[in-house]
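Q: Convert this sequence to structure tokens.
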Amino acid sequence: MNVVQENVLVGRGVAVGSDPPVRADLEQVFRAVYPRVVAVAARVLGSRDEAEDVAQEVFLAFGRSAVPAGEATGWLSVAAAHTALNHLRSGRRRTAREENAGGETVAPDIADAVVTRDERRRVREALARLPRRQAVALVLRHSGLSYAEVAAALDLSPGSVGTIVRRAESALRKELNRHAPSD
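A:
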């Protein structure tokens, strides 16, 4: 690229260098869709802090993408679910390593909290074992998206969303039963 071309690009607001330009509509899309992206990720992860980290990753990727603005909500919702599932899977491995290194002790007076936390962990682990499409459809639907929104986000017919969600719920129950703790 010569100096004249570079000056023209810089004059048009295009960043010149190794990083691709950031979308002009990023701030507008961010303000409109951020709560939904965090909600989807939080549904998978169970932690708003972790969900906000996922949202940051997703919006960074979106900012450098060529996704049409009209498809942004669906794309971001699916990306949030995928990224959160990836974090969940990597977090499970990290937790196993930490427990092998010496887990934390739990005081008996917080037994109810531990049981609830353990149940949520089991559900998240079972969700992470589902086929990706089923897990994403289930997360999106239970995050408040309509059948039409889930269908658009996953490029499905609206009529098939209910079937996929029901199959995902059934598969989730089977996973939970298969890996149920023995008393």
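The two ends are 69 Å apart (CA to CA).
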